[in-house]
Amino acid sequence: MQNKLAIHRAAWLAGGILVGLAIAWFWPHEPTYATTADRDDQFMMVTVPVGNAGVGILDPIDAVFILDFLTGQLKGACVNRQSGVFSSFYFRDLAKDFEVPGDAAPHYAMVSGYAQMPAAGGLTMASGALYVAELSSGKMAYYAFPWKEPGADVPFQLTPMSVFNWKKPAPKK
Hints:
- By secondary structure, the protein is of the alpha+beta class.
- It has two domains: 1-30; 37-165, no CATH class.
- The protein has two helices and ten strands; from the N terminus they run H-E-E-E-E-E-H-E-E-E-E-E.
- It has helices spanning 2-26, 94-97; strands spanning 37-39, 43-51, 61-68, 73-79, 86-93, 108-114, 128-134, 139-144, 156-157, 159-165.
- The strands form two sheets. The chain has a six-stranded mixed β-sheet with strand order 1-2-3-4-5-9.
- The radius of gyration is 24 Å and the shape is elongated.
- The mean pLDDT is 82.
């Protein structure tokens, strides 16, 4: 009697495993993406996705961007998969974009996200974007950038795609 119960338990266990595997096989697969960010008193860095299946790349890769709070300079790079070194470079002077006076103490915040912009000017745009806000100007800007796998010969300037005012600018001193 006890031997029969053990056989039935094993059958139920095997059946449950098979049903679970079948569900996992047919369930739609959703890739997970994660970006990272870290900040200090004087700079911040974030990762941004540059390619995924939406732009024909099945193995996504990230670029890293560093924002210097003191100068307002935003610079980034992406690693070349073949050589393992940084090969695509990007830059932008955010102090000019946000019209921050030279004597002001700007307060920036930056995050990354997905944008899936179409190709522009013969360049494939990265699948990610940077969103930067500045407190004293009250502006938030969205930046896109081109990307190609082998890298680029010259640094690309980030392209401001859209800007909006999220608060009134601070009064000028």
